[in-house]
Amino acid sequence: MANPATHEPPLLAVEGLRREFPAGEETLVVLKDIDLTIHAGEMVAIVGASGSGKSTLMNILGCLDRPTAGHYRIRGRETSALDSDELAELRREHFGFIFQRYHLLPELTAIGNVEIPAVYAGTALAQREERAAGLLARLGMSDRLSHKPGQLSGGQQQRVSIARALMNGAEVILADEPTGALDSRSGDEVLNILRELNRTGKTVIIVTHDMSVARRAQRIVEIRDGAIVADRATEPEERGQEEQEHEARADGHEGGAPQPARKPLFAALDRLGEAFRMAFLSMRAHKLRTFLTMLGIIIGIASVVSVVALGAGSRQQVIANISSLGTNTLEIFAGRDFGDTRSGRITTLVVADSDALATQSYVAAVTPTVSANELLRFGSVSANAMVNGVGEQYFDARGVKLADGQFFDAESVRNRAQDAVIDENARKALFADLPGSPVGRAILIGKMPARIVGVTQPQQGGFGSSQNPSVYLPYTTVQTRLTGTTVLRSIAVRISDDVPTALAEQAATAFLLQRHGVKDFFILNTDDIRQTITATTETLTLLISAIALISLLVGGIGVMNIMLVTVSERVGEIGVRMAVGARQGDIMQQFLIEAIVVCFIGGLGGVGLSLAFGAVFELAGAGFRLIYSSSAIVASLLCSTAIGIAFGYLPARSAARLDPVVALSRN
Fold first, then answer.
1. Which of the 8 DSSP states describes residue 581?
2. What's the rounded Cα separation, in Å, for the pair 243 and 229?
3. What single DSSP character describes residue 436?
4. Up-side HSE of residue 338: CA atoms within 13 Å toward CB?
5. Secondary element (H or E) of residue 382
6. Which residues contact 612 (CB under 8 A, 6 or more apart)?
7. How far apart are CA 589 and CA 583, in angstroms?
8. pTM higher than 0.70, yes or no?
9. What's the rounded Cα separation, in Å, for the pair 600 and 128?
10. pLDDT (tens digit, 9 = 90+) per residue, 595-618?
11. CA 579/CA 582 separation, integer angstroms
12. Cα 432 from Cα 379, distance rounded (Å)
């Protein structure tokens, strides 16, 4: 009914309330058609034996539970029509809970526990810290602000619980057996605090089985077997002190009025920050479990990053090996193709073609080549070798590097100089037992004497390479002194770096067709070989990456399983957060962020492990190194974050859908 003095609806009104629970094939009726009205400013004790239904009634009054039937109105507002977030708002803005077992979060300090309701209410950090400290100070806890629950006595923990209940300026204080876990002295202190809160205008509802505690209230409602059997006011003599008027003080034990909530964006960011903070606190509290959860992600990310780096490194090595044939090189041969039986009779591929090609804009270097097999002799040592007659640009076109001495130059080509550059195979064949450098020594090439001017570095792989000794001479020298012909075996052309090799090949073909009038040549494009091999390595990299991604998937499933276990272990914490006003979205956000943080840190660990593997791989002398790209590393971290979202969603959703009263009962 309405308050006759103000004609306003009562603060809390229950009408025909029933609460039933399934019990196997039967239904257990806990509350039977309860009618109850509580006005603002009352101090009411609900008493009854264990199992009488008093705690269930308190849970419904505090919007922790819903009735099976009947009506429950708060200032005339029907609660059955409210969704979960609207009920959370009522718990956050209008109710404060004091539990028998305190329900404090063990990872947080006293002031951190008191602040929780204000976090969900959107109060600014500085303001909520000031208010929480003020509340604790007024409750005699100023020297225990930074203590965690495990460092506090039972009475001190209950005081923290009271301060938390007052944090958002709740108008209704619900105390469930507030003295049940305390000694008589601490219990009296808590009851005195509750009386003082009532005198400041708070509505206080105490649920207890102890009649001596109930008599401290102004009104006693007795429940037996789910029904109200008595509802009476207490006399001053029962309360043990003289009834008198007290001036209401707005800042009594509340430490000042609660600050107004901030704009929704700032409040949401604050809740997000709280979720991140709780994620790190939870990870720190369960280090081994967190590490084991991360392990699958670490291995998966390390595998993916390493495989991608390995693929990039192998591709670079393949390109480097092909560069031993010449970077972006075209090799022009006489004949229509390899195996053309008429190629030996074609005499149209001449030095003039090489000189003409050198004038083309797409050509960076060009060299005619002739070849012959000759016997090399130095003293009593001899060896068969391939003698290559080349121009001075050959070494640049082919990417050949010097190990000792120098290359011959254009003047040597013009003067038909007998200057020879030998490779490592020729050096070993002729000078294996000779100390010092072979540069400057004279050898016989067939019947022609020549002076060694340089030694090339070994060519790592590369098509066309062999273990046979090779000697490089000016092509003019070979033509005039060894072969006696002006016909070329081939022309090597290095394409400018900014010109596509396919386009250069088309241009060279058209140019030579114009010169010869007939296609009596064919072109070997080494870039085709490079593309074929790199495509193969990319395919293999993709295959191995798919295998590595499977390990990531397994790691993600592991994260989901551990997070589900975490949710089951922290049901009590979820219940406490819901009781102080956390929305379903807040709970879901917290557990989803924990999964994301675990996976992201695991991703960082995986990247670090991969980089360490690359360093070890290089030290092991594998012949090439892993090449890491920033895009691959960023992509892997995004992938680990996505795994946290994908596999953390189900546990987070499970946590958010928990019933507050069920969650609290498992704390």
1. T
2. 26
3. S
4. 2
5. strand 381-390
6. none
7. 10
8. no
9. 30
10. 898 889 999 999 999 999 988 888
11. 7
12. 13
